[in-house]
């Protein structure tokens, strides 16, 4: 399964690892709330960050944690990921589309 995502997630080249990976497409909301990331991630560790540009970005972590920012990280909004698995990496395709991987 070689492809562009293996650059970010080398584990995707292993057949055994692929079975344990959960991949989720995340639709980003148009607005964000003004909550510090510490308040939103207090019960789950953050594992990775990705930014589409200087303003729009995501953080992913344990227990399916997904946070989004539209102001360069000054404020964050919790998003529903649809999983409770740990999310280990994230890639942003553009400001509205991202892919997260974990397992």
Describe this structure in words.
The chain is mainly β and 103 residues long. It has one domain (22-102). It has helices at 15-18, 37-40, and strands at residues 22-27, 46-51, 57-61, 66-69, 77-79, 87-94, 97-102. The longest helix has 4 residues, at 15-18. It starts with 14 loop residues before the first helix and ends with a strand. Residues 1-9, 12-25 and 29-34 have low confidence and may be disordered.
Radius of gyration: 13 Å
Shape: globular
What is the H/E string?
HEHEEEEEE
Helix percent reads under 10%
Q: How confident is the prediction overall: mean pLDDT?
A: 74
Beta-strand proportion: 35-45%
Q: Can you list the strand order of the major beta sheet?
A: 2-3-4-5
Distance between the termini: 17 Å
Topology:
Blueprint: H1 15-18, E1 22-27, H2 37-40, E2 46-51, E3 57-61, E4 66-69, E5 77-79, E6 87-94, E7 97-102
Antiparallel strand pairs: 1-7, 2-3, 3-4, 4-5, 6-7
Question: What structural keywords apply?
Answer:
single chain, 103 residues, mainly beta, 4-stranded antiparallel beta sheet, 3-stranded antiparallel beta sheet, 37% strand, disordered N terminus
Structure in a nutshell:
With 103 residues, the protein is mainly beta.
């Amino acid at each position: 399964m070689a492809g562009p995502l293996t650059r970010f997630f080398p584990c995707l080249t292993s057949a055994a690892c692929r079975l344990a990976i959960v991949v989720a497409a995340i639709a980003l909301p148009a607005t964000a709330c003004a909550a510090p990331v510490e308040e939103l991630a207090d019960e789950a560790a953050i594992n990775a960050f990705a930014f589409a540009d200087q303003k729009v970005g995501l953080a992913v972590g344990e227990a399916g944690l997904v946070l989004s920012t539209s102001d360069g990280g000054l404020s964050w909004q919790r998003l529903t990921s649809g999983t409770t698995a740990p999310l280990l990496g994230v890639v942003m395709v553009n400001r509205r589309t991202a892919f997260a991987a974990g397992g």
